Amino acid sequence: MTAQLEHPNIVPVHGIGATPDGRPYLALNRVRGASLAEALGALPTREARLHVFRKACDAVAFAHS
Q1: Alpha-carbon distance 16 to 47, whole Å?
Q2: How far apart are CA 29 and CA 11, in angstroms?
Q3: How far apart are CA 58 and CA 11, in angstroms?
Q4: Any idea what the Cα angle at residue 36 is, between residues 6 and 30, rounded to 5°?
Q5: Which residues are CB-neighbours of 4 under 8 A, at least 6 positions away?
Q6: How far apart are the C-alpha atoms of 40 and 16, rounded to whole Å?
Q7: What are phi and psi of 11, to 5 degrees?
Q8: Is the pTM of this model over 0.90?
Q9: Sign for the pseudo-dihedral over CA of 9, 2, 57, 46
Q10: Cα separation, 62 vs 16, whole angstroms
Q11: Which end of the chain is least crowded, N or C, by CB within 10 Å?
Q12: Distance in angstroms between the alpha carbons of the first and the last residue of the chain
């Protein structure tokens, strides 16, 4: 179901399962760039970080609609 979500702030999940030794995994599209911690650390102001948080909230709202 999540692979069908088309939103700029959602990475589709194409598969979910467990490795032979029992470790869980998700199969996602590769997204190149900085880690979330790096990206947030590079933002100059609290308002800039809040803007990113709002985008994440928009993605969650879209997924739940």
Answers
A1: 35
A2: 7
A3: 14
A4: 50
A5: 12
A6: 28
A7: -90, 120
A8: no
A9: negative
A10: 21
A11: C
A12: 13
The residue behind tokens 């996602």 is 28
| pLDDT per residue as tens digits for the range 26-65 | 998 888 889 888 988 899 999 999 999 999 999 999 989 8
Give me 12's structure tokens: 């589709």
Hey, what are 39's tokens? 């990206």
d(CA 38, CA 1): 30
Tokens of 6: 């088309």
Reading the block at residue 63, the tokens are 């997924």
